[in-house]
Design a protein that fits this description.
Order of helices and strands: HHEEEEEHHEEEEEHEHEHEH
Oligomer: single chain
Strand order of the largest sheet: 5-6-7-8-9
Number of strands: 13
Bound molecules: zinc ion
Strand content: 15-25%
Distance between the termini: 35 Å
């Protein structure tokens, strides 16, 4: 069993990305009757045994044993920069009243949400800094966002930049907004950006994907949970593809199409267009 990763790794070359086989033998219960499913994803294999008595599931990286010698390749659509001079952590300061008011009015955030999610200001780049948070609230990186109303600098053509400062190879690569305690704790709502995740987290557990797809690393976390993917109309076909590809690994999966980002909705609107549509068994 210790060698199950190497034992299954041949499937990396046998399967196309997104393809599933049910022909492999389960390395845990040793059954080979179609109950063991393996799906290839961008950087590895997701496996799940459907025998209730076994119920093994997990992820095997295709870079097995190479993490130390190989540079981690980010899987986001937006470029992750490895610049020497950033993050200018010494330039990251608290928001002033004007900036707080701006975020409150623009995104319907409360002052408490701004503080709990550690939203700050970068003096040097004159951008709002949204920390990328782990589930424990540690800062794993930053998304810096330009708003013309708040900056005296000329817009350089890139609205938001993502910087990682503290990401280990096995980090989930998503951001967890500050969360209250909810009654339904297996449901996770997935949205694209951090501010939207903060808005949804007022009502339900939520995660910001930081892109319009699910980072493969995050699949380890979402496996077995009830997933609600909230993406705008443009990204909905993509969300449906995600659902088809990964639904084996979720306990359940719902896609909700929206016509604007949750961060741009009023609270009533967000409840009507998202929260009330979530099916809870
Ligand atoms: Zn099994």
């Amino acid at each position: 069993m210790a060698n199950y990763k190497t034992q299954l790794s041949y499937l990396n070359s046998e399967l196309d990305i997104g393809e599933t086989t049910r022909e492999a033998q389960c390395p845990f219960c040793l059954k080979q009757n179609g109950d063991f499913a393996v799906t290839r994803v961008e950087d590895g294999l997701l496996y799940k045994c459907f025998r209730v008595a076994c119920d093994s599931k997990g992820f095997i990286s295709s870079n097995l044993g190479q993490w130390n010698s190989r540079e981690f390749l980010p899987i986001f659509s937006s470029p992750v920069r490895k610049t020497e001079e950033y993050p200018f952590e010494s330039h990251i300061i608290n928001l002033n009243e004007k900036q707080i008011l701006y975020l409150q009015n623009k995104f319907n955030l409360t002052k408490e949400e701004i503080i709990l999610n550690k939203i700050k200001w970068c003096n040097k780049t004159e951008r709002v800094i949204y920390p990328i948070l782990s589930q424990q609230g540690e800062t794993k990186g930053y998304v810096s966002r330009y708003y013309k109303e708040l900056s005296n600098k000329r817009y350089d053509g890139v609205k938001s930049r993502t910087y990682w400062i503290n990401r280990s190879n096995n980090y989930y690569n998503v951001s967890f907004p500050y969360c209250n305690n909810y009654n339904v704790d297996s449901i996770f709502v997935l949205v694209e950006d951090i501010v939207s995740s903060i808005r949804v987290a007022r009502h339900m557990q939520c995660v910001a994907l930081l892109s319009n797809s699910i980072p493969t690393n995050a699949m380890k976390f979402f496996s077995g949970k009830d997933i609600v993917i909230v993406l705008d109309n443009d990204a909905t076909t993509h969300a449906i593809k995600i659902k088809q590809r990964y639904s084996l690994f979720f306990n359940s999966c719902q896609v909700i199409a929206i016509d604007k980002d949750p961060k741009n909705m009023g609270n009533e609107e967000l409840i009507n267009k998202i929260i009330n549509l979530i099916k809870i068994d």
